[in-house]
Amino acid sequence: MATLNKKLSRLRRAKRGRKKVQELHLRNPDLVRINVIKSSKHISAQVIKMDPLKGTSVVLICVSTQQDNIKSQCKFTGNTSAAAVVGKALAEKAKELGVVKFAFDRAGFKYHGRIKALADAAREGGLDF
Question: Helix (H) and strand (E) counts for the chain?
Answer without folding.
Answer: 4, 4
